[in-house]
Each structure stands twice: as C-alpha cells, then as structure tokens.
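Case study 2.
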Amino acid sequence: MYILCFYAPESDVETIKRALFDIGAGKLGCYDSCAWQTSGTGQFRPLEGSSPHIGEQNRITQVNEYKVELICQKDAIKKVVNKLIEVHPYEEPAYHIIKGYTLEDLNGSKNFPGK
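Prediction:
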C-alpha cells in the first residue's frame, strides 16, 4: 500500500480527487473515496520558461490550497500518479509517495523493516 500526498488549489481539489477515486485510489476494504485533506497556503514563484496556471513569472504567489492524502494499492499507484499529473491544473504539481504498512505487513512480511 502507498500513501499519495498532493497539493491542489481549492477550486480544483474535488475534481482531482474524483479522477483519482475513479481509477481506484482511496479504496480500503469495503470503503472507497477515502482521503484526508487539510487547507493551507501554498507558495511558489514561477521562473522563466514556466507557464503558470496561477501567478506570474518571477513573482511569489500565495494561494489557498489543500494538502490531500489518500491510500493507493501497489498495483494502481503508477496509474494514479500519471492521472494526477494529467488532471492537475498546475504545470508541475507537487506530490510525494510514502510506502505504507498494514498490520498484515507487520505480521507476515520477512522484508518489513525491523523484522
């Protein structure tokens, strides 16, 4: 299992989540569309050669954004990240992926760190 974290402008976060949920992200057992999100202020400065969705080149921009975290199974993570990049309005969306472990991993994997 993986945890995908990304940042998105308030105006686009629901559209992005729906696109990722539609291809299997956020599924846990008998639940789907599972996510955690918090609001905050994102900051960036588009450099020469960029085509910013928000802001202007060489000017620091602050925007209301959400940090979204959702789980994703191993067999879907690459497809989900490609979809995130495709549907996100930013030219270069910020995201990161964390390897997650479940109780099943703790109990049964010889490769689990600390075993």
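The chain has three helices and four strands.
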